[in-house]
Amino acid sequence: MKDKDMDDILKEAARAPQTVAPGLLDRVTASIGTSLHPVSPMPPSWAMKVGLIAISVAIAIAGADRAGFFGVLNLNFFERMIIFPAMAILIYLAASAWVGENIPGSKRWLAPSALLGITLLGMLAIFGVLFRNYHTYRFLSAGLTCLGIGLIHAIPTAFLGRLILRRGYIVNSVAAGLVGGTLAGLAGVTMLELHCPNFQAMHILVWHTAVVPVSAAAGAFFAWILAGRSASHPSTLASSN
Prior knowledge:
By secondary structure, the chain is mainly alpha-helical. It has a domain at 68-227. It has helices at 3-15, 22-35, 45-67, 70-74, 77-101, 112-130, 139-164, 173-195, 201-232, 234-240. Helix 3 (45-67) packs antiparallel against helix 7 and helix 7 (139-164) packs across helix 8. The radius of gyration is 26 Å and the shape is elongated. Mean pLDDT is 88; it is low at 235-241.
């Protein structure tokens, strides 16, 4: 058989009518129709950023209001003007990055690891310059208390933030979890700066700052767990959507 003969056979097969049973087409159409539902468009990215920032600030202020504004009241004007604008900038960067992780193809100014690194270095630099009391009285007990308080306030920040971004599509779950955890940790640190009157340098440098990496690691870990479960149960995920 020559190549020309093979070409003729294939062309003839392509011209042959491919009939499909009408009943099968009806069933396919019905199955597609039942799985299609109208969806609301995502809010604009600026609105989601504002929502994440508002949640972070509100939780930090609400927590400090409940526990007492002992920290900010004992800071001088210069210290306040350095710490809280810096925290606001870091919260804005983290909120922007988290929104970007939920919009495929969006422009990213910082990689998640770079965001975490800049956040930690920024806080360490600011706290290291402003606080010069190097006593370590009740270093472990007071430190663990502040770490726990900061993480407690990070949890609702992460949960409410995820509700704002629920219509987004996450391509890299671990990266999104790391960024979300970073933002949640910043809310916890802001609450501690408003509340905690312990100005020992090592206390703030170690325990206040530690809220962010612990929260970021927890966010990445839980995102990894959830992504693994979704991958191992694709039928369940499809049915839930």
